[in-house]
Write a structure and sequence with these properties.
32% of the residues lie in helices and 21% in strands. The protein has 128 residues and is α+β, with helices and mostly antiparallel strands. The protein has a domain of 76 residues: 2-Layer Sandwich (Alpha-Beta Plaits).
Length: 128
């Protein structure tokens, strides 16, 4: 298996455009870190596929059109919701639980080195 992968990788060649180095400046790291600090990670508890555009549109409405709002799929049904201001992020977390297409969205604030398996619980409130 390993030899097969190595042989396939050895036959890969880059174009001259792909071979050029990409320079990352300290400002790039700063911007990325700020974006992460203003992020919430979420997992939608469903067996259905998720339309990313539909998710963004629905959550934008539900969350009151937060400034600088972006949604990205990170991996395996885990999404990163990026906010432009921390106040919107705090308001969304405080308003949990949230639903998308009648499916629960489990949200956790982004943490450095956060584990994807941390989506196994969600706080609920009920009224009696």
């Amino acid at each position: 298996m390993d030899e097969e992968i190595l042989s396939k990788l050895s036959s890969v060649t880059l174009t001259s455009e792909e071979d050029e180095a990409v320079e990352l400046l300290p400002e790039d790291f700063k911007a990325s870190k700020l974006e992460c600090l203003l992020s919430v990670m979420g997992k939608i508890i469903t067996q259905k596929g998720i339309n990313l555009g539909g998710l963004k549109a629905a959550m934008e409405i539900a969350w009151g059109y937060p400034k600088g709002f972006k949604v990205m799929e990170v991996s395996g049904g885990i999404y990163q919701f990026v906010f432009g201001v921390e106040m919107d992020l705090i308001r969304v977390l405080a308003g949990s639980p949230w639903l998308f297409n009648n499916q629960l969205i489990v949200l956790h604030r982004w943490t450095k080195g956060g584990q994807p398996e941390s989506f196994s619980y969600s706080p609920f409130w009920i009224q009696l």
